Every structure is written in C-alpha cells, then in structure tokens.
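Minutes, project check-in
Item: structure for the 85-residue chain
Input as provided by the requester:
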Amino acid sequence: MQEFLGFLYTMCFAFCFWPQIYKALKRKKVDDVSPIPYGLASLGYISASAYTIIKIGFDFWLLINYGLSLLSATVMLCVWFKYKK
C-alpha cells in the first residue's frame, strides 16, 4: 500500500503541469500563462530535494516526486520562453 501511495502522489505532482504544456505546444501560444508559478515551483522542488537529502536522506519516492515535478516545471518554462511574444 505504501508503494502504491508513493507512486500515486508522484504521478499526480509530476503530471499536473502536462495539460498546460500540451495546450501551449498545440496552440503555440502562451499569452495566458504566467511563468512565475513555474519558476517558484522549480525553486521549491530544488529546495525540497536538498532538504530531503539533508534531513531525511535518500527517500526514493520523495526525490523521484521532486525530480519529475522539477522536470515538468522546467519543460513548461522552456515552452513559455519558446512561444512568448
């Protein structure tokens, strides 16, 4: 059960960005997207990863969660920079 919950929250956090990324890529427009939340999320995931390593040690699900979520936020920022006007 614990592994399933770890997998579930990792997928939810990591993929919550992807509908917006898909929409921006499909329309090639990011006029209605603010990059600030994605930048803050990226900083938060980096900080959370460092905190986890320092305070808890190597926790697979937390670090995978933060890593995939950071990747998703970074992809959205790259899409935003590519299509901003």
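Outcome recorded: The mean pLDDT is 91.
No further action items on this chain.
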